C-alpha cells in the first residue's frame, strides 16, 4: 500500500498532473480560507486540466436492504436505534434490482449503486448481492455497492463477482468521528478501504458536511482522503439531510458557500477523482449546484431517492443541465 508522497499521472493531453499524498492540515485550511473567487479559479483550473468541465457523470443509488441497522450513526434514518418511520425490510429480490438498474440506464445513468443497511453482510446475503452485481454488469452498467465492513474473504468474493466500486465513507474527521458514531472505530473504516483496494476494487469514499463539525473537521476529512496511499476514484461529498428522529435533526444548516468551498478543496486535493455532489441536492438552489459544478463537482446521483431520502427529479436535473450547458453521461 505504500506510495510516494507525490506521484504523477497524465491528463488527456499527456501533460503531467501531480498527485500528492502528504497534505498538511494547515495547507488545507489555508485553501478553505482563500477568497472564494481565488479558490474557485484554482479548483476550476485543476478540473479543466483533467476533465471536460461541461460533462457530469450520472449514477443511481438503490437501497437493496432498508432499515434495521444496528449502528448508531447520528445522521442515519435507517438505524434501529431511532424512531424515524423507516421500517426494516428484507433484501430485495435480484429481479427487482435488475429492473431498477434497467430503468436507471434508460434514464442516463452509467453506474448503478446498491446500498444495504448492514454493519457487515452475512455470507449468504453476500451471495445474493454478487448475483445482483453480475446481473447489473450484464446490463452494461458500472457497479458499486455499500454493505458495511468486510472480511478479507468477502472482499475477494465481491472482486470475483466483478464489482467495480465499493463505497465506504469515512463521514468526517477522525477527531469529530466519535461525536457522530460510537459503534465502530475510525480505523475500522480505513481497514475496510485497505481490503477493498488490495482486492483490486475501485474505492468510492467521501463524507458528510453540515453535521455540526468545524471547518477544521472538514479539512481533516479531506486530508484523510487525499493522503490515502491512492486517492479514491470517486469522492462523494454529502450535505446532511436532516431526518426527524435522528440525533442530528434540528442541526444548524450549513452555509451553502461553505459547502461549495468543500467541493472546491476536494477537487484541488484529488485532481483525477470524480467528485460527486451527493445527498442534500434536493434542498440546494440551482445557483448553489451551479457553483458546485464550477468548483469541480463532476458526478451526481440521479433518480427520485437516495436510499431513504429524496433526491431531485430527473426533469429538474435535465432542466438545470440545459441551462448550464452541461452534458450528462459517463466519464
How would you describe the overall organization of this protein?
It is a single chain. The chain has 331 residues and is of the alpha/beta class. It contains eleven helices and 14 strands. The chain has helices at residues 25-32, 36-50, 94-106, 123-138, 152-160, 177-180, 186-198, 215-226, 256-269, 286-294, 314-324, and strands at residues 6-10, 16-20, 55-65, 111-116, 142-146, 165-167, 202-204, 207-209, 234-239, 274-277, 299-301, 305-306, 309-310, 327-329. Strands 3, 4, 5, 6, 7, 8, 9, 10, 11 and 14 form a ten-stranded parallel sheet that branches. It has a two-stranded antiparallel ribbon with strand order 1-2. Strands 12-13 form a two-stranded antiparallel ribbon. A hairpin with a 5-residue loop joins strand 1 (6-10) and strand 2 (16-20). The protein is globular and about 50 Å long. The two termini are 26 Å apart.
